[in-house]
Amino acid sequence: MSPRTQKSIASAAHWLLCLALILMGNFGLMAQRLLPRKPTNPVVAPDSLQKRSASLPRVGVTMANADSTKKDTLQAESDLKSTVVYSAKDSTIMDPTAQEVHLYGQAKVTYGAIVLQADYIRLNWTTNEVFAKGTYDTTSKKWVGEPIFEDNGEKYDTKELRYNFKTRKGFIKGIVTQQGDGNIRGTTVKKDAEDNMYIRGSIYTTCNLTHPHFHIAAKRIKVIPEKQVISGPFNLVIADVPLPIGLPFGFFPIPKKKEIGTSGLIMPTYGEEPNGRGYYLRDGGYYWAISDKINMSITGQIYSRGSWGIGLAMPYAVKYRFNGNFNLRFNRNVQGNEIKVLNKPRNDFSLNWTHTPVTRGTSSFGASVNIGSNSFNQFNEFSTQRYIQNVAGSSVQYNKQFGQFARMGASMRVNQRFPDRSKVDADGNQIDPGAIDAGIDFNFGINQIAPFALKGGTGAWYESFRLGMDFSGGLTANNNIVYADTSSARLGFVWANPPTNVVGSSTSPITTYALNAETFSQFIKNSQFTGRFSIPISLPNIKLFRYINITPGISMSGDAFTQKFQYKYISGNKVQVDTLKGFYFANNVSFSASVNTRLYGTFFIKGKRLEAIRHTVIPSASISYVPDQSNLYEKTVVNERGEVRYLNRYRTVGGNLTTSGTSAAAISWSLNNLFEAKLRPKSDSTGKQFEKKSILDNLSLNGSYNLMADSLNMSDISLAANAQLFKNLNFNFSASFDPYAYVQDAAYGTVGRKINKYSVMANQGLAKLSNMNIAFSTRFAPKGADKPKKANTPNTEEQQRMINANPAAYVDFNIPWTVNFSYNFGYTKQGLAKATTIQALTMQGDFSLTPKWKFTYSTGVDVVAKAPSITNIGIIRDLHCWEMSFNWTPFAGSGFRANNYNFEIRAKSALLRDLKLSRRRTFYDQGGF
């Protein structure tokens, strides 16, 4: 065959191969690989990312052109750093002349981390460029299959796109992209090799609707992915209405995926306190999303009559280790009216810190700090529970376990009782300063061990013998002064040198003084160190008649004191007491035994569903005996008649009087009752023959009797009960009864003096009801209302945990209504004094007028005062990405706080939009997510 003939056959074969490829493309190739070719003398822009991509694999195989005999086309390296994979549903057409591939119908191109989808895509392997756009559907008269460009997880919706794989530069028309919680849109975009985007005709919004409710409009925006958005002059647009609110430039940080918020301004609420501080802007400031472990918000408030305040909130969380919240607030309050200031300015502060560790390892640190000025809650708090709170407790504790047996711990505590501002003198001055009790406590102990069974044991009775050791102590101080009882009627003598009052006059002694700079030295001086050790010993348990358990025990204990009292009878029925400073120990040993059993009784009824009622009785009793306490008491003659008293050497002067020697013994008893119903199931499909339901969870009666006391041996008798009545009605009851009689005695005021005679013997009844508390509570809501909230928004574990832990802090638009009722009744009567009662009925909840309008309410009735309790009414409007709220307090129980309102409009976070929740704002937010 001649060379000319061979050349003709090769040329024909070449064109037949090209024709076959074109025909195959028209039948819809589903997965083609574009192997890039490096043209001769290419003209390309400098690639600033070339060094970064050098480590990627290069494709060395190229698609041949018409002349495939040139060496450079076979051995040249490709400009692309990875294989381009493409596919199309309708058709794939290759143009060898233009070196292009045309993809039609759900086309997709993948190049490394870059994924492009569109209805039409054109690839050019000469210029390494891709072009994509949608197709206009004449039937629906809409564009379909518009390009979706994805690069390293960042997604961009576009109208038209042109992108160069080699230079990583692109030009986009009509972009929509999500950056953090922000949604960015623009008419034209240029993308550089560093993935930065320069957008013209742009808007920035957190609303994810196609037509957003609000946005920030700017002519130019630069987007640095995963870092920030920088804007030129912009203004705010709400409901397509441009507002004259803007700035010459904007800076919007983009949070990382694991962060729990976006830094930005916090818009304040607006309202008025007509009888107090006047008009206000409150809780405005700045929120700083520092990291996924901690964030911080700084807020302030200002009032038209001169009051102001500042607050700092820092929630934090480290996964699997601990979480907490730190809040510090300061307010300077000026109360007045339109004409003048009514009171002197008052400084109030509040510090709240909670730290909750996740149990792990052998040590833990926790904190619950709640410290504030005496008037903070009354004049600055908007939480109903904190507004009426009269006490606050704080503690910080650390615990450590050493191996299997040893342990130690330390804690610091501060307990406050806020002043009762209703107690005033004739001039209207407050006379109740409140009370503060502070202390540092520590403990060390050895867990009880069985010395005769350290290596397992054989089941012998003596192997259950156990012993341990505990030592605890601390330094305590308070602003209470405990005076000696100078009543000779009870003591049988008169103190020669009773304690003097450090505050006030001798004619009106008080037991609590105001803690301030002048009295702080007295506060420290009154501090006391206490220490106590004990060695509990558990003896083998004894079974009596198979059903009665008897547990004997021995305990060796002692106390450490830093002061000691000495008593001396002088004359004229007077006893002198001297206080000695030092370090003293008082030791004693005690014996105890307890016995308990269980009794069951069944009452068969055999009704339609009720088969029987089972009654469980759990009686128990214990006896304790201390054979000798001579080291605790000093035997003292107290009057001219030669009467003897045993006065405590270490305890408060005037307390713990006894005339019966030094031994001590007491019997304690309790009787617990449980009631359960045995019911037939409503349906036989359950497969159960019977089911149990509690009728009364507990009905208990308990008390004690002091065998060694010379008088008043019987303690008060306590009665308690709790049950869940019906389906969701909770009932709690407690009461105590005083078994002794009282007689009139001017030295004891209206209460009278308790005498060593039972009430029934003095014709005063079986026993006196000294206090009683009754509480009912219930909640009504649609089925499934109390299920934990779950969102589709990613990376929101901490926010969801906080929402589920504080359901009352949010209004759920998915639940059409909720109602909570509670009734509380309290009765107190001491001796012969008049009884005092507290009775209140409260109700709170919410309901939806429409799917977007929610009404909230919290109110109640003080039955005794015949007046409403603190009342809040709120209206919330769900605006999708925004929400509007109005809160009104028509009655707050205080003229200073009465009749206040506030109005607020604010943007919602993505998580709350997903869950359809709104944050209640009838109180100060304490930080959080």
Essential attributes:
single chain; 929 residues; mainly beta; 56 strands; 52% strand; disordered C terminus
Short description:
By secondary structure, this protein is mainly β. Helix content is 7%, strand content 52%. The chain is elongated and about 130 Å long.
Secondary-structure blueprint:
Elements (H helix, E strand, L loop, with lengths): L2 H24 L5 E3 L36 H5 L8 E4 L3 E5 L4 E12 L2 E11 L4 E5 L1 E3 L4 E3 L3 E4 L2 E4 L2 E5 L5 E10 L2 E10 L5 E9 L8 E11 L3 E4 L2 E5 L2 E7 L2 E4 L10 E3 L2 E5 L4 E11 L7 E8 L4 E11 L3 E12 L12 E12 L5 E10 L3 H5 L3 H4 L3 E12 L3 E12 L17 E15 L16 E13 L9 H4 L2 E2 L24 H6 L2 E11 L3 E3 L3 E22 L4 E23 L2 E6 L5 E17 L6 E5 L6 E5 L15 E16 L11 E16 L10 E9 L3 E10 L1 E4 L9 E6 L9 E13 L16 H9 L4 E3 L4 E12 L7 E15 L2 E10 L4 E2 L2 E9 L2 E10 L8 E8 L2 H6 L1 E3 L10
Parallel strand pairs: 32-36
Antiparallel strand pairs: 1-2, 2-4, 3-4, 4-5, 5-6, 5-9, 6-11, 7-8, 9-10, 10-12, 11-12, 12-13, 13-14, 14-15, 15-16, 15-17, 16-19, 17-18, 20-22, 21-22, 21-55, 22-23, 23-24, 24-25, 25-26, 26-27, 27-28, 28-29, 29-30, 30-31, 31-33, 33-35, 34-35, 35-36, 36-38, 37-38, 38-41, 39-40, 41-42, 42-43, ...
